[in-house]
Design a protein that fits this description.
The structure is a homotetramer of 343-residue chains. By secondary structure, chain A is an alpha/beta fold. Chain A folds into 2 domains: 6-150 and 321-333, NAD(P)-binding Rossmann-like Domain (Rossmann fold, 3-Layer(aba) Sandwich), CATH 3.40.50; 154-317, Dihydrodipicolinate Reductase, domain 2 (2-Layer Sandwich), CATH 3.30.360. Chain A is built from 12 helices and 14 strands. Chain A has a 7-stranded parallel β-sheet, with helices on both faces. Chain A has a 7-stranded mixed β-sheet with strand order 9-10-8-11-14-13-12. The longest helix of chain A is centred in the middle third of the chain and has 15 residues, at 153-167. The mean pLDDT of chain A is 97. Chains in contact: A-B, A-C, A-D, B-C, B-D, C-D. Chain B binds chain D through residues 16, 184-185, 189, 191-193, 195-202, 241-243, and chain D through 16, 184-185, 189, 191-193, 195-202, 241-243.
Chain lengths: 343, 343, 343, 343
Amino acid sequence: MTEQTKKIGIVGATGYTGEELLRVLARHSGVKVAFVTSEKEQGQPVQQVFPQLPAYRGLRFISASEATSQSVDLVFLCLPAGESAPLAQPFSENGVKIVDLGSDFRFYDAKVYEQWYGKKHPAPALLSETVYGLPEWNREQIRGARYVGNPGCYPTSILLALLPFYRQGILPDNTLVIDSKSGVSGAGKTPSRITHYVEVNESMKAYMPGRSHRHVGEIEQELSRFANQAVNILFTPHLVPMSRGIFSTIYMPLQQQVSKQDLLQILHAAYDQEPFVHILDAAIPSTAMAANTNNCFIGLNVVESANHVILFSAIDNLGKGASWQAVQNMNIMLDFDEEAGLI
Amino acid sequence: MTEQTKKIGIVGATGYTGEELLRVLARHSGVKVAFVTSEKEQGQPVQQVFPQLPAYRGLRFISASEATSQSVDLVFLCLPAGESAPLAQPFSENGVKIVDLGSDFRFYDAKVYEQWYGKKHPAPALLSETVYGLPEWNREQIRGARYVGNPGCYPTSILLALLPFYRQGILPDNTLVIDSKSGVSGAGKTPSRITHYVEVNESMKAYMPGRSHRHVGEIEQELSRFANQAVNILFTPHLVPMSRGIFSTIYMPLQQQVSKQDLLQILHAAYDQEPFVHILDAAIPSTAMAANTNNCFIGLNVVESANHVILFSAIDNLGKGASWQAVQNMNIMLDFDEEAGLI
Amino acid sequence: MTEQTKKIGIVGATGYTGEELLRVLARHSGVKVAFVTSEKEQGQPVQQVFPQLPAYRGLRFISASEATSQSVDLVFLCLPAGESAPLAQPFSENGVKIVDLGSDFRFYDAKVYEQWYGKKHPAPALLSETVYGLPEWNREQIRGARYVGNPGCYPTSILLALLPFYRQGILPDNTLVIDSKSGVSGAGKTPSRITHYVEVNESMKAYMPGRSHRHVGEIEQELSRFANQAVNILFTPHLVPMSRGIFSTIYMPLQQQVSKQDLLQILHAAYDQEPFVHILDAAIPSTAMAANTNNCFIGLNVVESANHVILFSAIDNLGKGASWQAVQNMNIMLDFDEEAGLI
Amino acid sequence: MTEQTKKIGIVGATGYTGEELLRVLARHSGVKVAFVTSEKEQGQPVQQVFPQLPAYRGLRFISASEATSQSVDLVFLCLPAGESAPLAQPFSENGVKIVDLGSDFRFYDAKVYEQWYGKKHPAPALLSETVYGLPEWNREQIRGARYVGNPGCYPTSILLALLPFYRQGILPDNTLVIDSKSGVSGAGKTPSRITHYVEVNESMKAYMPGRSHRHVGEIEQELSRFANQAVNILFTPHLVPMSRGIFSTIYMPLQQQVSKQDLLQILHAAYDQEPFVHILDAAIPSTAMAANTNNCFIGLNVVESANHVILFSAIDNLGKGASWQAVQNMNIMLDFDEEAGLI
């Protein structure tokens, strides 16, 4: 275990994932936030932008370009697609480890990135060194990684529920249907028609249905990797009137009859030693269970007459779905207790 | 068109569907509410129980047993399963028409009722005279019916989206997956852990998944009837932190490639003459669109690579999903303009 | 009563008050919406911008400059401060009556407008002809008015509760404290940090406290006019996580002991003949009671030991607080039944 | 500082304050929860009742009568008025320290308790030993106390804002008006009409206005004690559609002109060394700032023309308003770092 205080930087710290990182890191006794960047707020005290975070008295936002020369142990990047990779390189050259909460380091193949993001990857050479930061499934690679691509919120909820089965060759007999529901913080902090209170409140709807959401690429990459074969999904996200939380309902047609007991056992075998993934044997999780934590709760229902298992997975999109999982990755990369700051 | 004011009664008028009926009927120039019943509030002025409904000054709740002898034109029954049918009979013997917002008159076969409700139907003989009250599909039978079973909220949203296809033989190639999301008023007015504000707010979850919710029976009955063959579904309802609204996402695997244009045309052919069902050619509906109305909005997305159509259907569960649809049925049964009071 | 269909225009029809006007007018059998304007959406079908309003099939947004030449009976102006008056004049010259939902016609004295809005009134000459559109208190002047300034949402809730007392010389002995709470639609439809779902949800706070909100001017103008003396208030509005509704809590120190019975009688005398103002003798109103209606509910509590009466007033800020009251004004100005379309 | 792990019990652990205590204590490295009681859930594993709290694997609910004989260092009592004191005594006789989150230990005078709670105090003799558990104002007495009465949620928000002034003799010139707004968890976990999601959502209202809420007694006791004279208040609480948070708006008429700068300085002098009370010099706090923390945020506005200061105070009603403050008290009583577990 690390004894010495490690220095941490956050690039793009004014959005929801940046704020949540600050909240979590304030509880982590092994780290000190050395800098936070914001192009818009540079020069401003953190306390003015986030009065709710009194722990950061004295810290001021700086620009990203000022930050790259700073000597820290690890940097979290909270930037839009295409902006992380160019910044990651100069940090990395100074020996700084990178956890990217955006999407630039989530793909092993730049072509897949281009297919889903509609633009060239800004630094494809780096992808040979990146690790998909889902600790329960890639822990050892994360430990030594220079670049970790922190998973998307929807993919985290879905992969944690499916990977135990895919790894064992329990694959859907037919189209896998994933119906996910997200709180509004997943849409980011920039004000828009979509996130206006009156438009969201007392309303819900689907968006980017079928195969149009970018997270499809990420989900299929990891499912295929663990299944050792190419797999495809149908994925429809929905916007729900709540601030935080993702609930994924996964309809998996089974190739052969498998009992609920057997399916539960597969989940337990995968996660009983894990601190943050919890199997509910006889209940359906809710997003509230996971709110403000790094936990994922998974339940299931077997419909024998239809030869289907329905999986339920609940996380906090800013928790296990973003910033808390990013700190879990940091804990692994910097040799802290994996639960440090996350309880 | 009816010229004369018709007299209306409401049995079980203190719940959410009863209150909503009172709200709608206050706007209907052709009717007068002659009585409202409540065992708990009998003797109380409506205005004390519902100060928000000043139109009913002077009216007091009476008991159901007092009501059955009253001479009215039509009665709405807002009662739990098993309680409507016994009360319907004495009203009907006096020539009173019945719209039941409960489930006793939604099935043609008492055995199907028993299968889904876990108890004997209280008056199976009446089922030969009942009509499933989905006006867009059963209008002519509703017109002359003595008993109309007003559809459940989930079934309304789902059947309106699927029946145009099932009627034409466009059936799912494989398991049809329906993922529905409901506001909390659908859970009724009785306080419980489930409906406590703090339990619902900032949370969402599935309940009664797969084939365990009672509405499965009703949905399969009508789908099978119009498809002329037995059909089965997977149906998972979810509770969402909002008061009103149902959003159904329906994943239908197609037997053969059908274009979006063709599918839209089928929907338009079914509903372009209908005042309350609206097809969105290029958008996904939201529940807010339908709030406080009798409207249903339907959209769709075709995923060619997966040979699926995803249907989206949004209603207000107390609107088209309950009380407003009940008034639409009343309008048909009493020969009013079908839109009277519903705009 | 008017027999013939009247033609109505709405300028600035894409905001929340415009949309609500369209919703209400669709139920009004005596009017036809002849035009709606929007600089941003000009040329677009209403149905594309508001799919939730199927009644307006065929209508398209035009620009305000195109509208002024149209021959209609009455125009609703839904524009920011300073933009209504310049447009009102050309309409008025064509004999069109004006109901302004903005603030340009709420003041009798251009200096008072300037004091609260921080800019010159754009057409002070028109103010001699304007009427403050609170029908319960200015009905006769509204009937013949060319210009009606529809009251602000906070002022409506506050004036309806206080004017019965001020008119009778029952004035506060000391500083009158008004603590109001508003839903978010009152902040308008333009996306901003303030109206972002995640900022509003699960949060509440005061804003523009004391004497800094513009509505203070309007409230004091009308209180002073009916009290026949200059009066001052303390007014602190709050933003509450709900879409609609205003709740005002008014703390009035009494000059002399007055019983609850006497105070209630004053309210009843003022409003028992009014269709939209309802006195609760023994309960405290809630905003939900008034949602989606033109109603105002008033309750009170007398604290004898402190010689105070606490008044409670609840409205829908888009209902009696804006668009529904605007239609009430229209009904008076065009000689319709005052309740037409508003039940 | 304490080195050794202390043993803690929670009586009445299934309500919202009990659950929140469990959540906070899981992060406190110096304590171990030795028992939790619930008459209703006795025998059940904590994990079944609270699957969201995986830290308590292995712990089961026991009955309160089983608990009293257990050897622990401190017990939190989360019980209704009148039930804490009888249980506190047997614990105390075993040397167990008590933090009562109910109201039995908040009063120094049993008569005042009786006046506000409408019943005899169950153990008036204990009141000579109790301390009102507001650490910023009674820290030294808390340190040695056997019984600490953890303050009510409203009183905490109000007293923290007012005591700095009252202590210095800056008292209201006239009636002090306090208008408070609370989230719904303050109403407790028992399902009722009041807490039904559909009744609360999209609604707000006042309740128990003026001088009828029980917290008035507690607020006046502490204000009077620090002012060295009897003081009276007007206090109106409101229910707001959010789960957590209290916002108090306090209207204080000043006896003499005092500048904003002077008032701010008094607040800073009182709290700049305090870890949990934060003064906003130039902003108004919101409840969201304090959510899930032990923080209180205070802001103010001076209205010179009306000679008033308006104070704003925001806390989390389950945080500084209940369970987190209870842990702060525990930290003082057991000689932990006062911030332990509370960051």
